[in-house]
Design brief:
This protein has ten helices and no strands. It is mainly alpha-helical and about 240 residues long. It has two domains: about 30 residues; about 210 residues, Orthogonal Bundle (MetI-like fold). The longest helix is centred in the first third of the chain and has 35 residues.
C-alpha cells in the first residue's frame, strides 16, 4: 500500500507539471492554471457531489449485477461441460460486438431513465467477469477436484473451499478492468437524456465554454476512479494473502 501512495504521489506531480507547462506555453483558456482547477474542485465540490453520487450509483448497480450474473454463469460453464458447449459460441459471438452502439435501442425499448444506461454497462462488462470465472475454474488442478469428490464435500463447502479461492484473484482483476470500462461507457451514456452524472456535467461545461469547471469535473472523476482502484487493491490484500 505504501508503494501505491508513492506511485500516486509521483504520478500526480507529473500530471501537475504537464498541466502547468501547457498553461505556461500555450497561454490560452483551454489550458487554465492547474492551481485554479484544484481550487475550483474544492470550492465547488458541493455542486459536483450530486453528479458524483448519481454516477457512483449507476456504476455500483452495474458492477454488482454484472459481477453476480457473470460469476454465476461462468461457474456453471466451468463446472458443467454441456452448458459451456451450448453457451460458449454465444459468448464469443457477443463479446466482440460494439455494444455501446446499442444505447439508442436500449433507450427506445426500456426508456430514457437509469435502467437503459445500467443495462448498457452490464451488457459490456459482464463478459469480463464471465470469462475470468470460466478460465479460473478450468485452471483448477484435477487432483484437487478428485480429492474433494473423494471427501464428498457438500456443494456449499465445495464452493467455499475449492472454487472461491480459485476464482477470487481473477474476479478482482476483472473488477479493475470492468470498472475502467464502466466509467468510459457511463461517460458516453450520461450525455443523453439526463441532467445528472459526471459525464453530463463535464460535457455541459465544455459546451458552455467553462473549461475550468470541465477540468475540475475531470479531476474529481479521476480521484473517484483512483479511490475505487485503491479499494479493490485493499480488498485483494485482505482476501488473497497468499499472493
Amino acid at each position: 500500500m505504501r508503494k501505491h501512495v508513492k506511485y500516486i504521489f509521483v504520478s500526480g506531480l507529473f500530471i501537475y507539471a504537464v498541466a502547468w507547462l501547457f498553461h505556461v506555453i500555450f497561454q490560452t483558456a483551454l489550458f487554465p492554471n492547474p492551481n485554479t482547477i484544484i481550487m475550483i474542485s474544492i470550492r465547488n465540490f458541493n455542486k459536483f457531489v450530486p453528479h458524483l453520487l448519481v454516477s457512483g450509483y449507476r456504476i455500483l448497480i452495474s458492477m454488482s449485477v454484472a459481477l453476480i450474473l457473470g460469476v454465476l454463469i461462468g461457474l456453471t460453464m466451468g463446472v458443467v461441460p454441456l452448458v459451456k458447449k451450448i453457451l460458449n459460441p454465444l459468448v464469443y459471438t457477443l463479446y466482440p460486438i460494439p455494444k455501446i452502439a446499442f444505447l439508442p435501442v436500449f433507450m427506445l425499448l426500456f426508456g430514457i431513465k437509469d435502467f437503459s444506461k445500467i443495462l448498457l454497462i452490464v451488457s459490456i462488462i459482464i463478459f469480463q467477469f464471465l470469462i475470468a470465472t470460466v478460465d479460473a475454474v478450468e485452471a483448477i488442478d484435477n487432483d484437487i477436484l478428485k480429492a474433494a469428490k473423494i471427501m464428498k464435500l457438500p456443494k456449499g463447502s465445495m464452493f467455499k473451499s475449492v472454487y472461491l479461492p480459485a476464482i477470487l484473484p481473477n474476479i478482482l482483476t476483472a473488477s479493475r478492468n470492468a470498472f475502467g470500462m464502466s466509467i468510459a461507457v457511463l461517460f458516453f451514456a450520461e450525455n443523453y437524456a439526463t441532467t445528472y452524472g459526471m459525464g453530463y456535467t463535464i460535457m455541459n461545461s465544455w459546451m458552455m465554454v467553462q473549461y475550468k469547471d470541465m477540468y475540475a469535473g475531470i479531476l474529481l472523476l479521476s480521484i473517484f476512479g483512483l479511490l475505487v482502484f485503491i479499494l479493490i487493491d485493499y480488498v485483494e490484500m485482505r482476501l488473497i494473502r497468499w499472493r
